[in-house]
Amino acid sequence: MTKITRYKQSLYQDWKDGEISQQEYREMKADYERQAAGLSDLLTRLTAERKQLSNGVDQQHPALVAFAKYQSIEKLTREILIELVDHIKIYENGNISVHFKFADEFRRIAEYIEINTADTAEAG
Predict the structure, then answer these.
(1) Are 91 and 76 in contact (CB under 8 A)?
(2) Digitized pLDDT (tens) for each residue of the chain, 124 residues in all
(3) What is the pTM of this model?
(4) Hey, CA dihedral for 37, 38, 39, 42, is it positive or negative?
(5) 3 state SS for 25-51
(6) Do the beta carbons of residue 88 and residue 78 sit within 8 Å?
(7) How far is residue 35's CA from residue 39's CA, in Å, rounded to a whole number?
(8) Residue 18, by phi and psi: left (phi above 0), alpha (psi -120 to 50) or beta?
(9) d(Cα 57, Cα 110) in Å, to the nearest integer?
Protein backbone atom coordinates (compact mmCIF):
# COMPACT_ATOMS: atom_id res chain seq x y z
CA MET A 1 0.00 0.00 0.00
CA THR A 2 2.86 2.34 0.83
CA LYS A 3 4.52 1.64 -2.51
CA ILE A 4 1.31 2.29 -4.43
CA THR A 5 0.76 5.54 -2.53
CA ARG A 6 4.30 6.67 -3.36
CA TYR A 7 3.87 5.75 -7.03
CA LYS A 8 0.58 7.60 -7.18
CA GLN A 9 2.16 10.71 -5.66
CA SER A 10 5.12 10.64 -8.04
CA LEU A 11 2.72 10.09 -10.92
CA TYR A 12 1.15 13.48 -10.23
CA GLN A 13 4.58 15.09 -10.28
CA ASP A 14 5.41 13.37 -13.59
CA TRP A 15 2.22 14.81 -15.10
CA LYS A 16 2.95 18.31 -13.77
CA ASP A 17 6.52 18.11 -15.10
CA GLY A 18 5.15 17.18 -18.52
CA GLU A 19 6.72 13.72 -18.56
CA ILE A 20 3.33 12.06 -19.12
CA SER A 21 0.09 13.28 -20.65
CA GLN A 22 -3.07 14.00 -18.66
CA GLN A 23 -4.69 10.92 -20.22
CA GLU A 24 -1.76 8.72 -19.17
CA TYR A 25 -1.93 10.25 -15.70
CA ARG A 26 -5.65 9.46 -15.37
CA GLU A 27 -5.23 5.88 -16.62
CA MET A 28 -2.27 5.15 -14.38
CA LYS A 29 -3.94 6.80 -11.39
CA ALA A 30 -7.06 4.68 -11.90
CA ASP A 31 -4.90 1.56 -12.12
CA TYR A 32 -3.12 2.41 -8.86
CA GLU A 33 -6.46 3.09 -7.19
CA ARG A 34 -7.76 -0.33 -8.34
CA GLN A 35 -4.63 -1.99 -6.97
CA ALA A 36 -4.98 -0.15 -3.67
CA ALA A 37 -8.65 -1.16 -3.37
CA GLY A 38 -7.75 -4.80 -4.06
CA LEU A 39 -5.01 -4.75 -1.43
CA SER A 40 -7.35 -3.10 1.05
CA ASP A 41 -9.98 -5.81 0.49
CA LEU A 42 -7.34 -8.52 0.88
CA LEU A 43 -6.07 -6.95 4.09
CA THR A 44 -9.61 -6.80 5.48
CA ARG A 45 -10.21 -10.49 4.69
CA LEU A 46 -6.87 -11.56 6.16
CA THR A 47 -7.50 -9.52 9.31
CA ALA A 48 -10.91 -11.14 9.71
CA GLU A 49 -9.40 -14.60 9.19
CA ARG A 50 -6.67 -13.87 11.72
CA LYS A 51 -9.28 -12.73 14.24
CA GLN A 52 -11.29 -15.88 13.63
CA LEU A 53 -8.16 -18.01 14.13
CA SER A 54 -7.28 -16.21 17.35
CA ASN A 55 -10.80 -16.81 18.69
CA GLY A 56 -10.36 -20.51 18.21
CA VAL A 57 -13.02 -23.06 17.53
CA ASP A 58 -15.73 -23.97 19.97
CA GLN A 59 -16.81 -27.52 20.66
CA GLN A 60 -20.04 -27.04 18.70
CA HIS A 61 -18.41 -26.03 15.42
CA PRO A 62 -20.08 -28.17 12.66
CA ALA A 63 -16.77 -29.27 11.16
CA LEU A 64 -15.34 -30.27 14.52
CA VAL A 65 -18.53 -32.16 15.45
CA ALA A 66 -18.47 -34.05 12.12
CA PHE A 67 -14.78 -34.95 12.38
CA ALA A 68 -15.12 -36.02 16.01
CA LYS A 69 -18.13 -38.17 15.14
CA TYR A 70 -16.19 -40.02 12.44
CA GLN A 71 -12.68 -40.03 13.89
CA SER A 72 -12.13 -43.76 13.51
CA ILE A 73 -13.81 -44.76 10.27
CA GLU A 74 -13.37 -48.40 9.35
CA LYS A 75 -15.95 -48.51 6.59
CA LEU A 76 -17.25 -45.79 4.29
CA THR A 77 -21.01 -45.55 4.53
CA ARG A 78 -23.56 -43.42 2.73
CA GLU A 79 -24.17 -41.43 5.94
CA ILE A 80 -20.47 -40.57 6.28
CA LEU A 81 -20.20 -39.67 2.61
CA ILE A 82 -23.21 -37.33 2.77
CA GLU A 83 -21.99 -35.61 5.92
CA LEU A 84 -18.34 -35.10 4.96
CA VAL A 85 -18.17 -34.90 1.14
CA ASP A 86 -19.45 -31.98 -0.90
CA HIS A 87 -18.92 -33.56 -4.31
CA ILE A 88 -16.80 -36.04 -6.22
CA LYS A 89 -15.50 -35.49 -9.75
CA ILE A 90 -14.59 -38.41 -11.98
CA TYR A 91 -12.57 -37.52 -15.05
CA GLU A 92 -12.38 -39.29 -18.42
CA ASN A 93 -8.81 -40.44 -17.75
CA GLY A 94 -9.95 -42.23 -14.59
CA ASN A 95 -8.71 -39.64 -12.08
CA ILE A 96 -10.98 -38.82 -9.17
CA SER A 97 -11.09 -35.69 -7.03
CA VAL A 98 -13.00 -35.51 -3.76
CA HIS A 99 -14.11 -32.12 -2.43
CA PHE A 100 -14.86 -32.18 1.28
CA LYS A 101 -17.54 -29.98 2.86
CA PHE A 102 -15.32 -28.71 5.65
CA ALA A 103 -11.99 -28.36 3.82
CA ASP A 104 -11.50 -24.66 4.68
CA GLU A 105 -12.71 -25.12 8.24
CA PHE A 106 -10.42 -28.11 8.72
CA ARG A 107 -7.47 -26.05 7.45
CA ARG A 108 -8.35 -23.24 9.89
CA ILE A 109 -8.72 -25.67 12.79
CA ALA A 110 -5.34 -27.24 11.95
CA GLU A 111 -3.71 -23.79 11.74
CA TYR A 112 -5.27 -22.77 15.06
CA ILE A 113 -3.96 -25.94 16.72
CA GLU A 114 -0.51 -25.44 15.18
CA ILE A 115 -0.32 -21.79 16.28
CA ASN A 116 -1.50 -22.50 19.81
CA THR A 117 0.68 -25.58 20.16
CA ALA A 118 3.72 -23.51 19.12
CA ASP A 119 2.75 -20.71 21.55
CA THR A 120 2.28 -23.21 24.39
CA ALA A 121 5.61 -24.91 23.64
CA GLU A 122 7.44 -21.55 23.59
CA ALA A 123 5.81 -20.46 26.87
CA GLY A 124 6.61 -23.79 28.59
Answers:
(1) no
(2) 888 888 888 998 899 999 999 999 999 999 999 999 999 998 888 888 777 666 655 556 666 676 667 677 788 788 888 888 888 899 999 899 988 887 777 777 677 767 767 655 555 4
(3) 0.43
(4) positive
(5) HHHHHHHHHHHHHHHHHHHHHHHHHHH
(6) no
(7) 6
(8) left
(9) 10
Q: Can you give the C-alpha Rg of the chain in angstroms?
A: 24
CA–CA gap between residue 92 and residue 84 (Å, rounded): 24
- What ranges make up the beta strands (E) of the chain? 85-90, 96-100
Q: How far apart are CA 37 and CA 1, in angstroms?
A: 9
8-state DSSP, 75: S
| Strand, helix or coil for residue 88 | strand
Domain ranges of the chain: 1-55, 57-124
Question: How far apart are alpha carbons 81 and 64 in whole angstroms?
Answer: 16
